[in-house]
Amino acid sequence: MLSHYRTGSESIEIAARRSFFAAAPASFGCGVFDMSGTSAALLRVAAMPSPIMNRVVGLPGDTALDDATLARITELFRERDIPQFWVHVWDGPGNGALRDSLLARGFQPQGSWAKFVCELDGFTPPAPASGLAVRRAGKHEFGLAGQILCDSFGMPPVLVPWMAGLNEAAGWQVYFACDAQGVPVATGALLVDGPNAWLGMGATLPAARRQGSQQMLMAVRLAAARAAGCGIAAVEADAQVRHSINNIQRAGFRPVGTRSNYLCPVDFTV
After folding, report:
1. For the N-acetyltransferase domain, which residue ranges apply (predicted)?
2. Taking Cα atoms as reference points, which of 15, 1, 2 lies closest to residue 258?
3. Which of 102, 157, 188, 219 is the most buried (most CB within 10 A)?
4. Is residue 251 a part of any domain in this protein?
């Protein structure tokens, strides 16, 4: 049963990335590439060469990574001068073939992501207590959500035009948590994709943290997903960031597993 939810959560994640990447400015060099013979996808962002944006999601854990697939992966990253990337592998004994093949090539684990799902049929999101008000952003405000994301994580404003581009994309909703003056201080996004929902892009400005903003935003987005007819919602987070994991589980999500990130250098010789 867990394998079913793991596969489903990755399919939702990949679909969300396809839609998000399609909204990026052309100069960002975004692309999503299918891995032949599998349901896996390679995610590439030339403008942001960190492995968190350049990774391979969904390779079957019971199959070793073969030379031809690795050559295809490294070539796709190399052609945009991306020096390294992640390959995700679910933790657990059923994924040993892929994991062992990466370790045999010298690739090393570098942190992990926890994956969660929430079945929305009959679900009522908890109502967390917070002094912040939550509202849905207007299409013209999507860029502001990008600014909050960048300011929250100490990034240059690269996400401002990218988030602004989502205002023309189908299915996307953006929400703000606002202070007493009505100023947005936290954000989170929701993608409604038929029966599936994906939650992401959660961020809170440093001065507004520890006020329950992300719990509020989780609850509102889950309610919106259920109202839109979604049956399941998925989300992922860095497994080492305990407060994010706590917020997700308090919102009603349940864990389906953890994926280790294996750091792979592009200059590896197959």
Report:
1. 132-270
2. 2
3. 188
4. no
Within-domain flag for 244 = no
- Closest residue by Cα to residue 261 from 131, 142, 84, 132: 84
- State mean pLDDT over 115-139: 88
pLDDT band at 235 (very low <50, low <70, confident <90, very high): very high
The C-alpha atoms of residue 232 and residue 238 are separated, in whole angstroms, by 21
CA distance 178 to 173: 16
The three-class DSSP label of residue 132 is coil
- Tell me the mean pLDDT in the region 54-72: 95
Asked if residues 185 and 148 have their Cβ atoms less than 8 Å apart, the reply is yes
* Tokens standing for residue 36: 């032949």
Name the domain count of the chain: 2
Tokens of 263: 């750091």
Distance, CA of 211 to CA of 242 (rounded, Å): 16
> 156: buried, middle or exposed (CB in 10 Å: 19+, 13-18, 0-12)?
exposed
Q: Which residues of 177-209 are buried (b: 16+ CB within 10 A; e: fewer)?
A: bbbeeeebbbbbbbbbbeebbbbbbbbbbeebe
pLDDT at residue number 269: 57
According to the model, what pLDDT value does residue 230 have? 97
CA 75, 198, 166, 24: dihedral to nearest 10 degrees? -10
Determine the structural domain holding residue 68 and report its residue range: 2-114+258-265
* Same structural domain, 145 and 211: yes
Is residue 171 domain-shared with residue 213, that is, in the same domain?
yes
